[in-house]
Amino acid sequence: MRNELRIDINMVKPRPQRTQTKARPSASASDMDIEHHINALHKVTETLTAHSAQMEKVLQAILDTRTSLEGNIDTVVAEVNTLQIEHRKLAERVATAETILNTAQPDIADMKLRLQLQESEILRLHKRADKAEGRSRRNNVRFLGFPEKIELPNAEAFLEHWLRENIFTKDRPPLLIVERAHRVPGGPPRPGAPPRPLIARLLNYRDRDQVLKNFRTSGPIDTENAKITAYLDYTAEVQCKRATFNTAKQILRDKNYSYSLMYPAKLRVVDDERSHIFPTSEDAWTWIHAKGLADPTAEAQIQKECLTSQSRRKKRSKLRTESGPTKSQVMAEQAQVLKVANRFSCIQPQSNQDTNNSDSDSVSSQHIAAHHGTNVYSTLSR
């Protein structure tokens, strides 16, 4: 589209000349004005022509922009439609998820309740199992200080002879029998490390009491340049509970208080002919602070030593655990034992050779049984 301004010069008629002779001088001025206007019109025409070309370019650019915008709008509309479809699908999925959650909430609440019941049942069974293991250790005595391999080749005969020569020197029992005796599993100690404890199971509980009483009254016994001591053999859980009273016992010893540690882990303190029994170490500490027995400096030092001792015990326990059987082996043995137990409705008792006592540091009964080549439940067969 082009609009051109065309001016015909012939259409511009000159003014009629006046006949008067006096008007001749002004006729030439009129011609000059006309020529001036014609030149101005020519300039306007050229300017309008140039502007017309520019307007044509602007209009063409507007048309191109409109075409591009129409294409972009179509693309945006298509994307918006796609987003609407996706949004609709997501809304449906959210509604489905809400329905599933609303349906699952009662089941989750029921499972939580069942889990709590199972945890309480597992805790109860764990206590019963620990109690049964503790009962199986009632006649066990843990001897500390015997040099390595001194008991070979027959640990039972060695201990029977040693007890007669060092403990029962005056009133010898008519029949002193050591049913089983063995070192704590874990392999020979490293050079410079203390020897492993020697665990012995006595047939008669009176002999056990006599041995422990002798060590309490007389103290350690020298044998082969070593000081021998003896203690009861407790389970790992009982040992951990009793170890929490170590700091309190040391303070009571320093203050000359009479105390005793009752089974499984209760501290009994005698003060002014009155007995105080503390089921937990926190109760004991409350009483000690109330009596003003604790020295802050000494208490901090004792706590530091206890933490160091506990870290060493954990490190030794970790080393023993790493040298023991793998988890898959233990689980395989447990599955086999349970399979046999389900078949016969009970676990058959093992022979005396398979009734090795478990480690009082209690790596685990499975670890000890696997170390000795015995059944994982050999300790329960006693």
TrEMBL record:
InterPro entries found in the cross-reference section: Transposase_22 (IPR004244)
Q: Where is the composition biased (Low complexity)?
A: 350-366
Per its record, how is this protein called by name? L1 transposable element RRM domain-containing protein
For region Disordered, the annotated ranges are 309-330, 348-382
**In terms of domain of life, where is this protein from?**
Eukaryota
